[in-house]
Amino acid sequence: MSIQEVAKAATRQINAVVVSSGLMAKTVKVRVGSTKWNSRVSKEFSRTKFLKVHDPNSSLRTGDVISISPGWRVSKTVHHVVSEILAPFGDPIDARPPVPTEEERIAEKEERMKDKLRRRDLRDALARVDGAILKLERNISKAKKAHSGVVEELETERMLLTRKSSLLEQRVSDGKRS
User: Fold this and answer.
1) Taking burial as the number of CB atoms within 10 A of a residue's CB, which of 70, 98, 100, 144 is the most buried?
2) Which residues, in sequence order, are CB contacts of 128 under 8 Å at separation 6+?
3) Are 52 and 5 in contact (CB under 8 A)?
């Protein structure tokens, strides 16, 4: 596939009519019309296809004529996202939440990815600290048998690592809440 074909597919807009809204969270069902040529009878037949479309702000109502763009996979069955409302049905566009632009959707996705990576780093740091604590506890049990002075040093180091571990656990849980 050439660069022009990729760019054309990425910017392709499809007009559709909202058939079902409000039943799925941030998702609507739309009807897309097309025609198919039958060479046997030399005639075009109209076809309708039903698609599920991601609606980030739940701003669509049944009967709206919208423009959608493909290639924004949200789930197993949702592969399109709403670009704009062409003709509203019912409530005026001003009374609804705005449809986010492509730049806003990309920025939101990048922010979610950064949060995910931050939580992963905290979780990894917590696992490393927990591993160090277990290693120290094994060393303490070995040292108790041999020397008592080394045991006190290892006990204080374990206390410090335990404090660090609890702080990391708190940061991980705070990251999950936000």
Assistant:
1) 100
2) none
3) no
CA distance 61 to 18: 7
Q: How far is CA 119 from CA 66, 162, 164, 167, 169, in A?
A: 37, 20, 16, 14, 11
Least reliable range by pLDDT among 74-83, 157-166, 167-176: 167-176
Residue 150: per-residue pLDDT: 66
- DSSP per-residue string spanning 37-93: EETTTTEEEEEEEEEEEE-TT----TT-EEEEEE----SSSEEEEEEEEEE--SS-G
